[in-house]
Amino acid sequence: MKYKYRLLIILCALMSFVGACRKDPKPLKEESEELTADPSSVAKGFYLVNEGVSNMNKASVDYLDFRKGLYRRNIYNEANPTVVKGLGDVANDIAVYGSKLYVVVNGSDKVEVMDVNTSKKIAQINILNCRYITFHNGKVYVSAYLGEVGNPNAANGIVAQIDTATLREERRVEVGRQPEEMAVAGEKIYVANSGGYNPSNYERTVSVIDIASFKVLKNIDVAINLHRIKADKYGDLYVTSRGDYYDIPSKLFVIDTRTESIKKSFDIAVSNLAIDDDTAYFYSTEFSYHTGKYTVTYGMLDVRDEQLNGKQFITDGTEAKIMRPYGIAVNPHTKDIFVTDAKDYVSPGELYCFDSTGKRKYSVTTGDIPAHFAFVY
Amino acid sequence: MNGVKLSLGIFSGIALLFLSLPLCAQEHFTADTAGRDNWLNEVKIRQVKINKEQTSQTPLQILSGEALQRLNSLSVADAVRFFSGVQLKDYGGVGGLKTINVRSMGTNHTAVFYDGVQLSNAQNGQVDLGKLSLDNMEEIELYNGQKSTILQPARGFASGSSLYLNTALPKFEEGRTFRMKTSLKGGSFGLINPSLLLQKKGGENFYFTLSTEYKRANGRYKFRDRNGEYDTTIVRRNADIESGRFEASVSALLADSSQVTSRFYFYKDQQGVPGSIVSNVYDFSQRQWDRNLFLQTSFRKERGRYRLIASAKYTNDYTRFLDPEYVKDEGLLLNNVFKQQEFYISVANRYSLTSNWGVAFSADYQRNSLDANLERFPYPTRHSLLAALATEIKYSDIEIQGNLLATLVDDHVEQYFSAGKKSELTPTVMASWKPFHDSDFRLRAFYKNIFRMPTFNDLYYTNIGSTFLKPEYATQYDLGFTYIALLDEGALLSQISVQADGYYNVVRDKIVATPSASLFRWEMRNLGRVHISGFDLNTQTGWKFSDQISGNAGITYTYQRAEDVTNPELNYKNQIPYVPIHSGTLTAGCEWRHLGLNYSYIYTGERYNQSANIPANHVQPWYTHDIALRYERSKRYQRYRITGEILNLFNQDFDVVANFPMPGRSYRFTLSYTY
């Protein structure tokens, strides 16, 4: 009998130790950090969207308030606690247009529309495998990999036109396979096609969409596996090609929108770039299967005369701390440069701010895979 | 209130403990560590006081016979959750992938052996335990480190931990030459699962076994998702599965009393692949088809001081994955086909130098190849040669074993780059000591250094693999004790056994896959370093209340700190994903006449679903209560049994893997007939 009691005492002790209870679930709380305030800032601040790693449903939105010097992390859940499963899986782009904030959530097949001031959800536009967003004259344009699901003959991607007042899709046009970024120049949208689902037959074109007729006028042959496309103020487009990671290296091309042909090409890798005024700021994280290694580089070029200017926008050695640069933006008024670090892609990232001389001003912890910016005025 | 449910659970658990009684099939045929050499003996159930679990120098946990039956398990995966030190990674549902992670070293460090020969998967190094049926399983053994015997295939020395699945042995009562068992399971998820097992004795020395099974489920279940503000219930879709299994084996006892056993295994399924439940995405269209077959033969011989085990195996696996949402090109969906083949031969020899000193040498050769319809696929073939030299010494109450394992791996590819040749030499040492003559108390300890090779997927998967990977090492230190006592006839508590171990593991050059800058590329690197310190406890008791009422109760508990020490700048000393600090199980059962009642409780403490231990990654504890009631009638050789089970009794909503929700309350009924 003694054994029995001893055993029971042990069991009870163990169970009470082990059986820590579940707490009632609560929406994830916003967190904030104080940075240096700039009350006279022209821009109010910016939204930064964190992609979150695929399948984890951890896309999140942060906000940096320049005037208060306040960094607010993960603002979506507290602002929208009743949205089932929150913002969603892999946020691929963000933009502010008028009074609304748009987030393209790739893994959740939706564009989330929020109030720019309160971050409260206004509407959701469902688009399968949506990728990037841009605007022109009261309309939203979203690129997407998939036109319809389960149709093997619908390989091409699309660009959808959405009205910013009704928030309904109005028209869509077929472009190349797996379209990525878009840029607007004049009354045309230029879309970079990647064909990334089929490496033996990458796409190599930029599709030119006439906005009025919403038809593809032509496809400009550039190079394989295109990704970024940014317009400068001189009517040129900067287009990046990712290469094939084996023998064809990454490259940067300049397209003149007047002639719709390639004006210049640079034998440099560019993973992402931000153009402000006459300067393009870029970084590259190029991978090669031949070496199994990444090469990370940073650089700047002058978009007026399309020349590399040989300067660096990080000059204080901070680049050694950045594991994987993933997003870039420039404050057009202060010329501060923002670079995000995605680290190992499964941990909270870091946002770095550099002044115009390349010195680190501050850095702050973000959500997972901080990637895309949208300034607020 | 979950708290209420928990208290209720504890209360019912303890109430059952009070009721408890006779126990576990502690009857193992022998304490023979080399396998089941006496397995051809006709049925001889006897109560052995000391079994393998007590004498093993490496921690060993066993579920066998009736104990296994009582655990309400459909697959091997359901059963292994009741071992201490184990986390089951479960994607949910009947068809969801289920893999085992022992002592936080990672799935790839556990080898799974099916009737003594490893089930390997050179492609991804994982065995889906959800697809291994328990229907014809007699015994499941989990060894930390390795099986504590020196006479075993070299592969037996080559993993961080080993799970042995031993199928039902042909056992015949005196004068009988035929036995059968048939059962039908059904219940939630639209499950229908009939099975048949036939055993035949031919002449004096031949035994035939045939086992076949069909399983079908629509896989649908409701799950609940809530955050305190919203509370929604969604139906899990595209989780259907249909599978068939056929196994045949023949055993012969030859004139010189050596034994030959051959087995043919065939499994085929087709299933929906339910993806992660993320905002706005609740339905899926991906599908998968699998086909596995193997043919294995083993030969055992004993002559004087010499013993031999020789085995050979051929495996052929096929997997096809279709993603209709991934349109690669006009008319071309993502449709990946993988074909694997394996040839394996092994010879293990043991020689007794004296009655207390034995030496063994074993050598294995294995050839694995993978064919896939991926672009730029290298078509790898891997030749592995393993040789182990081992010795065991008994001195008084001390037993010591040690071995040195040499591994030579050579990869060849048809194009691009191969990982080339690798060779490793790794040791294991283990010892046990029985300090008191009159008490079955044993101290034990082991040290093992082992590694796992990068898999074909790690190295060669197009756009993911990296041929620059090195092997991933795991070093283990373990110190523990076992104790068993059979109490006086007439005592309420009739038997108690305890085993407890403290351990420290270091995993270095951990192979980590991280998504990369583009959707199409991941990166594989030898990034991680993890320090794991833990404590495992497994206690089983048998109770006898009266001549008619007997009971059993068991408890396991695991404490683990598994710290990421990869990079002092990043998540340093954070608990690695999905490893709870506390976890445990409680099982209890009692039997009265024709009725049996069983209860089981599983607790998994709070943990994180990504590397950073922050609120955004925090996952609530989960705990489920399962109960089963069975009614059984026997008449001479015939036995009828009806079982009804309620799983996740309190309908708790939880995920084991983030966004792969587990089913709420579900039901299962089993009818079985044995003759």
3D structure, described in words:
- The complex is a heterodimer of chains A (377) and B (675).
- Chain A is built from two helices and 29 strands.
- By secondary structure, chain A is mainly beta.
- Chain A has a domain at 31-267 and 364-376: Methylamine Dehydrogenase, Chain H (7 Propeller).
- Chain B has five helices and 36 strands.
- Chain B starts with a helix and ends with a strand.
- Mean pLDDT of chain B is 88; it is low at 1-48.
- Classes of the chains: A mainly beta (377), B mainly beta (675).
Strand content range of chain B: over 45%
Class of the domain at 31-267 and 364-376 in chain A in CATH?
Mainly Beta
Second-tier CATH architecture of chain B: Beta Barrel
Query: What is the domain total for the residues of chain B?
Result: 1
If you compute it from the alpha carbons, what radius of gyration of chain B comes out, rounded to the nearest whole angstrom? Answer: 25 Å
The structural class of chain A is mainly beta
Q: What share of the residues of chain A lie within helices? A: under 10%
The biggest sheet of chain A amounts to: 5 strands, antiparallel
Give the number of helices of chain A.
2
Unreliable parts of chain A: none
Membrane topology (chain B): Multi-pass membrane protein
GO molecular function (chain B): siderophore uptake transmembrane transporter activity
Family (chain B): Belongs to the TonB-dependent receptor family.
Signal peptide (chain B): 1-25
Summarize the helices and strands and which ones pair or pack.
The complex is a heterodimer of chains A (377) and B (675).
Chain A: H1 2-18, E1 31-34, E2 45-50, E3 60-65, E4 70-73, H2 76-79, E5 91-97, E6 100-105, E7 110-115, E8 121-126, E9 130-136, E10 139-144, E11 158-163, E12 169-174, E13 179-185, E14 188-193, E15 205-210, E16 215-221, E17 226-231, E18 236-241, E19 251-256, E20 261-266, E21 272-276, E22 279-288, E23 293-302, E24 307-308, E25 325-330, E26 337-341, E27 348-354, E28 360-368, E29 370-376
Antiparallel strand pairs in A: 1-4, 2-3, 2-29, 3-4, 5-6, 6-7, 7-8, 9-10, 10-11, 11-12, 13-14, 14-15, 15-16, 17-18, 18-19, 19-20, 21-22, 22-23, 23-24, 25-26, 26-27, 27-28
Chain B: H1 2-19, H2 52-55, E1 60-64, H3 65-70, H4 76-80, E2 86-90, E3 98-102, E4 110-114, E5 117-119, E6 137-144, E7 161-167, E8 178-187, E9 191-202, E10 206-217, E11 221-226, E12 231-236, E13 241-253, E14 259-272, E15 287-303, E16 306-329, E17 332-354, E18 357-372, E19 381-395, E20 398-412, E21 421-433, E22 441-452, H5 456-460, E23 472-486, E24 493-515, E25 522-544, E26 549-564, E27 574-575, E28 582-592, E29 595-604, E30 607-608, E31 618-619, E32 622-635, E33 638-647, E34 655-657, E35 660-661, E36 666-674
Parallel strand pairs in B: 4-7
Antiparallel strand pairs in B: 1-6, 2-3, 4-5, 6-7, 8-9, 8-36, 9-10, 10-13, 11-12, 13-14, 14-15, 15-16, 16-17, 17-18, 18-19, 19-20, 20-21, 21-22, 22-23, 23-24, 24-25, 25-26, 26-27, 26-28, 28-29, 29-32, 30-31, 32-33, 33-36, 34-35
